[in-house]
Amino acid sequence: MNKHVIVCISIVLCLLATIPAFASVSVSSPGNGSTVGSSVKFVATAGTSCSKGVASMGIYPAPYQLAYTVGGASLNTSLNFNPGTYNVVVQEWDNCGGSTTSTVTIYVTTTSQTGVYVTSPANNTTVGSPAHFVATATTGCSLGVASMGIYTGPNQLAYVVNGASLNTSLNLSAGTYNTTVEEWDKCGGAATKPVTITVGSSAGKTFYNIHSAGGWNGYAQQPPNYGDCTSCTPSGPGTTWAMYQLNKSITLSGNSTQFNIGGTQAYTDVLWNNHLIGDFSSQGLPDSSHTLVPTFHDFTYDVYFYSSNLNVSEALEFDINQFFNGMGFTWGTECRVEGGHMWDVWDNIHYKWVPTGIACNPTLNSWNHLILQVSRTSNNQLLYKSITLNGQTSTLNWTYAPFSAPGWWGITVNYQMDGDYKQTPYRVYVDKLNFTYN
């Protein structure tokens, strides 16, 4: 089988039957990732290229739970929420039959009470080392929260930081930990949140800085079928692209990689992939005996990306692929930017993107840090574990079946940039791209 065909199963984006009119939803209140009281103020506006304008807007506190609608291109209302974490979707519908969404994650608490809210790691989960802790705190003390800390066991304070939030990673040996995240306020009060985690026996092996390594190949993917265009060249026609390694002008490590996309054909994409282990390995691990690839179950895609005009990107895609014994596992994860500011994951069996309800709002002119954690279960199911963007972890634990992939054996990673309705050119700098396998 042609090696490119099987790799590209993960990034076929031709699944939209129609291309909607360009639209956007801008939510000015509440702020994404904010901690709010039970009465939440929503302020949002919408725009569309539909000549008939925006018909209405609505608010979904949870999937399929439409709590509020209003005619026109703006909304301003307050809704009551019970304490908890919500991925709220604000949606607009235009008069041409199109729609788009924007997702805002909020943490609802009773503001007169004290509380600790841990978003990572999830309670009763298995994690690697270092274990990533993300938490916020509120207090009824008029002077505010003084500091927060993490206990890895009774009287074992492993970390402390000033303020009402923490975001850190702790190196932990294998075993089960009854950790406690605590806040101390300036009135002498405190509150705690217990989190039990199991640290795996091995943190795995890591390929570091593979953005600057060899083995990368780029391919245009054009409508209507979005397969790899083997006749296309980086200079066109229709789609243009470029990859410049060892960039020293905008970098964290000293050598970033610049990726460009442009052209004249709307909604076309460019895929870059690298074969790490197995067939066509760029890392010296060909696995000709077919004994290595099946032993790996846990994968982490860890990357930083930067752009000054990412707002014109339809989407950015980050994929992990594993193939052996006729089975294909594609953990596809994309951040829809112009496409709706939401994370989607790939359904291998039905060949479609599935919205997660998790907001994706990367910042412009700043380094964005993305960590994707996935696994292959003991019964060969794909498990999407979590998405962490700029310290905000969202836990999924969604499973999907693999697809048929005869004749291919290996582990690969993809990075992809998608063009918008104008195929507006944009560039993204990628740095510190590390891949951990275990």
General description of the model:
The chain has 438 residues and is an all-beta fold. The protein has 3 domains: 23-108, Immunoglobulin-like (Sandwich), CATH 2.60.40; 129-199, Immunoglobulins (Immunoglobulin-like, Sandwich); 204-437, Sandwich (Jelly Rolls). It is 1% helix and 57% strand. The strands form 6 sheets. Strands 18, 19, 22, 24, 25, 26, 27, 31 and 32 form a 9-stranded antiparallel β-sheet that branches. Strands 17, 20, 21, 23, 28, 29, 30 and 33 form an 8-stranded antiparallel β-sheet that branches. Strand 15 and strand 16 form a beta hairpin. The radius of gyration is 23 Å and the shape is globular. The chain starts with a helix and ends with a strand.
Would you kindly provide a brief summary of this structure?
The chain is an all-beta fold. It has one helix spanning 3-7, and strands spanning 23-29, 34-36, 39-48, 54-60, 68-71, 74-80, 84-94, 99-108, 115-120, 125-127, 131-138, 145-153, 156-162, 165-170, 175-185, 190-199, 205-207, 216-221, 228-229, 239-247, 256-263, 269-278, 298-306, 315-324, 327-336, 342-347, 352-359, 368-376, 382-389, 392-400, 403-404, 410-418, 426-437. The protein has three domains: 23-108, Immunoglobulins (Immunoglobulin-like), CATH 2.60.40; 129-199, Immunoglobulin-like (Sandwich); 204-437, Galactose-binding domain-like (Jelly Rolls), CATH 2.60.120.260.
Any descriptors?
Immunoglobulin-like, 438 residues, eight-stranded antiparallel beta sheet, disordered N terminus, mainly beta, Jelly Rolls, nine-stranded antiparallel beta sheet, 57% strand
